[in-house]
Amino acid sequence: MSSPDVHFEEIARHRRIAAAGNRSMAMLVRLAPGVLLCGVVSLLAVGLQAVEIKLAGRAWLEALVLAILLGTAVRTAWKPGARWCPGISFSAKILLEVAVVLLGASISAATLASAGLPLLAGVAVVVALAISVSYGLGRLIGLPHRMATLIACGNSICGNSAIAAVAPVIGADGDDVATSIAFTAVLGVGVVLILPVLAGLLHMHALPFGVLAGLTVYAVPQVLAATAPVSALSVQMGTLVKLVRVLMLGPVCVVLALITAGRNEGGATRRGLPPLHHLVPWFIIGFLGLMGARSAGLIPVEVLKPAASMANILTVLSMAALGLGVDVRVVARAGARVVSVVVLSLLLLGGVAFALIRLIGLS
Fold first, then answer.
1. Domain boundaries, the chain
2. Tell me, what DSSP letter sits at residue 275?
3. Which of 93, 233, 337, 344 could anchor a disulfide with 206, C-beta 3.0 to 4.6 Å?
4. Does 55 score more than 60 pLDDT?
5. How far is CA 69 from each of CA 188, 262, 321, 323, rounded to the nearest angstrom?
6. CA distances from 23 to 13, 19, 87, 105, 154 (A)
7. pLDDT at residue 146 greater than cutoff 50
8. Residue 190 has pLDDT above 90, yes or no
9. Rounded to whole angstroms, what are the CA distances from 111 to 245, 284, 300, 350?
């Protein structure tokens, strides 16, 4: 290559680097307001937790829970505009998923082995039973087929992720999806707040409570908020059980695709399976990868504590973002039938979870 060609190639390379830098800076500027807002809410939550400890000797409400409550209060009183939304969405999704990945470093194969085959098999049975009964309940109360399916899968597997993955398989329309997701947002926060209180009232030990949270909480990251006030063991077991539930999403979508193959309901036909990354999200792969690395001794011991601390910081920040995305008034606008089905399905799932815990001798 001649000298002028080399010169022009070098100029082009520098321009590409500069353009990439400009895009990155523009993205940071776009995300900054919302992330900073989440940070302010998180700092208030941490401050309130410190006040609790000083006045009562312990934190009755952890910073994770306080961040959700404060964020929800802000969102109910004030709807953030377009300037704030990108950073809030980034914190609620990406930062939360990174926290889940980092949590994988705290779980080893020994923890997985402690769960035992009966528990892992029981999770699959609980998911299948909960979907079937929840769907039947929805149809009995009068919900359309697609709405009943979305609610059943959202409640039984992983909330919004399950709804998003199942919707194209069954040809659900935007209104059905929006209503279902609105409920998982509101009730998901409610479950996170109620479960630690329930654990105290029932005097549940860390291990069975982790299983209960993993079987009932909607989203993987929300398990962190529900179990952190109890113990580290609850966090580990709850996350493990929840991940087994999430992995059921792939088989469920395949079954639904086969059931609805060739079906034409209301002019909508089956659109096929969703992309692979919807069935197995990247953060689950990352979580399992770090768990495998921890089990193989590839992660230095000195790294484990900082990784856990970073996961906790990101989770508090993300819980603030989650609260900022929840408007409790959506429940009042959804209709009594939908409310009844969602709440009854969730109670049913809790009952089945308690039955499994007793059956395998963890109670």
1. 94-359
2. P
3. 233
4. yes
5. 13, 46, 11, 6
6. 15, 6, 16, 32, 36
7. yes
8. no
9. 17, 17, 18, 23
